[in-house]
Structures are given as C-alpha cells and as structure tokens.
Amino acid sequence: MSESQPYLPPPPPEPAAKRTNWKTLLGWLVLVAMFIAFYQLFSTPSPSGAPPAAPAPRPTPWLSYVLWGAVLVALAWFVSFVRASNRSAELFRRGAELMSLRKFVEAEAVYVEGRARYRFFSSLRATFDHNIGVCALYRCEFDRAVELLEQARSVIGPWTAVLRYAASSQLALVHSLRGDVDAAARLLAEAESRGAERDRSALYLPRAIIACRKGEHEQVSVDLEGRWQDLETTQTGTAMRALRLLRAYALAHLGPRGAGQVEQLIAPLRPSEPGEFAHFAAAWPEMAAFLQAHGL
C-alpha cells in the first residue's frame, strides 16, 4: 500500500456481535434445547390406551416461574446486546475517521461516550477501552495506554478472542516503545499464540522494535529487507512508514556499509506530519536523536 496515504492507525476491532461463529450457533442450540426441555417438563401427557398411571409429581409453581423468568431474561439480554452492537458501530466509525486525521483527543471523546453508553456489555466496553488505549499510545501516554489495553486484554466472554489478540499486540508495541523488552517479548509471544489462525501483520512492528532495543540491528535489517515486498502488499501506509523508519535506524547502526542506504530509506518519509513519530521518541532517546538528526 502507498506510504503517502493519510495517517491510519491499526483498525480497531469490530463490534463483537457482528461475527457469527460456533459460539453463536452453540448459544442458539442451547436456547432451543431449553425450550424443548421446558415443553417436555410442563406439558400434559397425551392420552393413550395404556392403564392410567399415577400422576407424575409436578414442579411447584414458583420453580416454573423462576425457570421461565431466567429464559426471558437471557433472551432479553441477547437481543439488547445485538441492538447495542449495531448502534455502537456508528461510534466506532466516527472514532476511526477522527484517528485517521490524527485527531486523537476527539476520537477518544467518541470512544469514552461509547464506553459510558454501553458499559453494561463487557465485550463492547472492553473494545472501547482498547480504542481509547490506542489513542493514549499515539498521544505518548504509555502508562494510561497499558492500563486500558490490559483491561481490554483481560475481558472474558463470547466473541472476545479477536479483541484479546489485538490488545496483546498493542501492549507489545507499547512496552517495546518504552523499553520494557521482557514484557514486550512476553506479550508478543502471547499475541502470536492467540493469532495462530489470524492475520499477524500487526506483529511485525513490535517485533522489529524489540530487536532494535536489544541491539540486534543487523537481524532487523536482514529480516525487513527479506520481507519488504510482502510487507508492501499487506501493511497500511502508516505501518510501512514506521517499518521504513526502523529499517533506516537499524542500518544506521551497521557502520559505513549501511550508511549509504539510510538516506535513501528516509527520503520518502519527508515531509512527515507534526508528531507523526512522537511515540517513537517519547521514551527512546536513541530514536529521538536519530529523528532529530534526519529532520523527522
């Protein structure tokens, strides 16, 4: 993808209820089974030619009321969740548009509104937490980003596997940027295990930062050079600009043999938008010096 396209951070997870998977089907099967069981339990046996048997003990009225009430409550919650997910889609869309314009304060306000409005649905609330955390990341509020992303990562419930994977990958990015290499590597491994059957494109950036932080500049240079053509077809323009920066940074640490390619890689990054790479420099002095030396 073109590196000159408008700024676009990693897309936030979609509202969970829009996905139909085996858990959704299982939920419907459970509901059908409950209805059949209740029908068999409370229906009157049809007459037959057999001698009348002693009447089966009937459940007490309060028990039947409790069981039917539980079914109705479950159905009402499920319908409310689906409606809330559909309505929240507009807030996710507005927030993503604002983030594409680097209006992170305004985008966060939209997500905060959504979190308050749908606070009773854990998966929606956690998705808004994730997106607020991403806004905090690009505003260089790393501690706050970690707190919010950890909340999203710890959510338990149906339709949250993608959210936990996204939160783990973003946490790996935050920790790598602020220099906590061990935590970043642990979260990266967690994201890789959770994303075994998912798109792993979001993991290239934290993996490269971790290697740079550990001084493995030659490995970063070789890995990115070998994958470059594939990356250009799978990454967003913004992600490619960040990877181009990291590739140039790694080459700059290889001495004279890499110095000649640094400017060639840096040139397409100019002019950069104000603050575009601020989150790279906030807690990484060597990267801050590199950005300043190359006018970024």
Q: Tally the helices: what do you get? A: 13
What name goes with the CATH superfamily of the largest domain?
Tetratricopeptide repeat domain
Major sheet: size, sense and barrel closure?
Answer: none
Please give the radius of gyration in angstroms.
Answer: 26 Å
Give the C-level CATH assignment of the largest domain.
Answer: Mainly Alpha
- Counting structural domains, the number is 2
CATH topology of the largest domain: Serine Threonine Protein Phosphatase 5, Tetratricopeptide repeat
Structure class: mainly alpha
Q: Tell me how many strands there are.
A: 0
The coarse silhouette is: elongated
* Distance between the amino and carboxyl termini: 21 Å
Helical proportion? 55-70%
Protein model, in words:
The chain is mainly α. The chain has helices at residues 22-42, 61-100, 104-117, 122-138, 142-153, 161-177, 181-194, 204-213, 217-234, 237-252, 256-266, 278-281, 285-293. It is elongated. The protein has 13 helices and no strands. Mean pLDDT is 78; it is low at 1-12 and 14-20. 69% of the residues lie in helices and 0% in strands. 34% of the residues are buried. The protein folds into two domains: 74-214, Serine Threonine Protein Phosphatase 5, Tetratricopeptide repeat (Alpha Horseshoe); 217-296, no CATH class. Helix 3 packs antiparallel against helix 4 (122-138), helix 5 runs antiparallel to helix 6 and helix 6 (161-177) packs antiparallel against helix 7 (181-194).
